[in-house]
User: Which sequence fits this backbone?
């Protein structure tokens, strides 16, 4: 694929009004301005965000102007898309704290320096200035019927769940971002189609200008399950490479090919080859290791990817101990340092009940021996493991 074809086709679900119309613009010498917005409702960008970042990078490579928009205003409200209940509103201080490392995280894929640097913008710059008169004008271009036809709102109505009025306003605010920045193209996941088309409507009505919308496929397995914390497939761009590698290895097999397409820039001929190997009976773990390596390489570098792969092969596949086991020094007396308390202190479990559940499931070991007693007290220097991801050497203060 040429760079242009990659930008227009790889992972793309649909282009509004059409691919042909956007291609006509891109075939000229004109350099367009495009953006994707990222609401800091949490401090992490994740692998799903990497999909849109890669698409922005595709256009940046072609010389187009990219805006990395941080939704510090919209983030206080939160996007209602796919939400079965009203989101908890955040304070300005909370979203500002969450956004502190967004540029660094986005910079793993986008170029924020040198020629054709991506630009960072915050949508509070213009949304803080919107008056009630302005809001009425913006809202006049939409109907209540348009809003309640959205899947999640329709579902909530049928389930007699409340819909807050400010949730109706979210698409208007996201749409107004396009107007305020006077962009030519907005990029986002297919679940953002309604919000992005709201911006297309406003651009036409308020500026008499066409705004293209490019929607991307979502990272789902063959059962239609999205990448998420609940499915065990949430990968923060801030995760350390070893954890990131292990999390990719935990992907459902049905997600492998799509993840290659959406989350890497491995040549599509190679992706097709891997897909055929899977269909012909190749052990999925072999292909998944290639995927994990490529994701780590993209977000870090080849050296880091090799180290993460070697760590996985030794620690997980050959059951060896990692060379850099973290040491946790306990300040509590040994007499009360039960394994239940230690798991919570080490952040291996969020509560005593969760720690007991892990022990009951046989997920916790001391120097390789499974622990079944909630009140077991490890010796100083013991290696405690919980599941596949958590391991630490336990030392009591004064016994180092």
Assistant:
């Amino acid at each position: 694929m040429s760079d242009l074809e990659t930008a227009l086709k790889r992972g793309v679900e649909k282009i509004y009004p059409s691919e042909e119309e956007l291609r006509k613009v891109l075939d000229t010498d004109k350099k367009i301005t495009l953006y994707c917005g990222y609401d800091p409702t949490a401090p992490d960008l994740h692998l799903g965000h990497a999909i849109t970042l890669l698409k922005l990078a595709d256009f940046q490579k072609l010389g187009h102007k990219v805006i990395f928009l941080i939704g510090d205003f919209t983030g206080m409200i939160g996007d209602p898309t796919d939400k079965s209940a009203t989101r908890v509103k955040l304070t300005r201080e909370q979203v500002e704290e969450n956004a502190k490392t967004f540029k660094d995280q986005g910079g793993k894929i986008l170029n924020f320096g040198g020629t054709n640097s991506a630009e960072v913008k915050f949508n509070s710059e213009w949304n803080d200035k919107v008056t009630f008169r302005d809001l009425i004008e913006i809202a006049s271009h939409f109907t209540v019927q348009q809003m309640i036809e959205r899947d999640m709102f329709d579902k909530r109505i049928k389930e007699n769940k409340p819909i807050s009025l400010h949730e109706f306003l979210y698409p208007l605010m996201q749409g107004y971002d396009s107007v305020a920045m006077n962009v030519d193209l907005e990029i986002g996941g297919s679940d953002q189609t309604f919000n992005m088309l709201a911006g297309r409507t406003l651009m036409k009505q308020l500026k008499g200008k066409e705004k293209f919308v490019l929607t991307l496929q979502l990272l789902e397995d063959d059962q239609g399950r999205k990448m998420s914390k609940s499915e065990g497939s949430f990968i923060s761009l801030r995760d350390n490479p070893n954890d990131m590698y292990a999390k990719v290895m935990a992907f459902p097999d049905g997600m492998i090919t799509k993840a290659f397409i959406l989350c890497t820039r491995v040549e599509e001929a190679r992706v097709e080859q891997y897909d055929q190997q899977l269909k012909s009976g190749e052990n999925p773990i072999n292909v998944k290791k290639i995927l994990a390596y490529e994701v780590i390489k993209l977000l870090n570098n080849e050296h880091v990817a090799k180290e993460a792969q070697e760590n996985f092969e030794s620690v997980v596949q050959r059951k060896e101990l990692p060379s850099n086991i973290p040491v946790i020094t306990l300040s509590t007396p040994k007499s009360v340092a039960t394994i239940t308390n230690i798991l919570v202190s080490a952040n291996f479990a969020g509560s005593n009940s969760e720690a007991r559940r892990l022990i009951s499931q046989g997920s916790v070991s001391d120097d390789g021996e499974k622990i079944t007693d909630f009140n077991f007290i490890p010796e100083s220097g013991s290696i405690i493991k919980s599941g596949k991801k958590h391991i630490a050497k336990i030392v009591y203060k004064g016994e180092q």
About this structure: Residues 165-181 form the longest helix (17 residues). The chain has 19 helices and eleven strands.
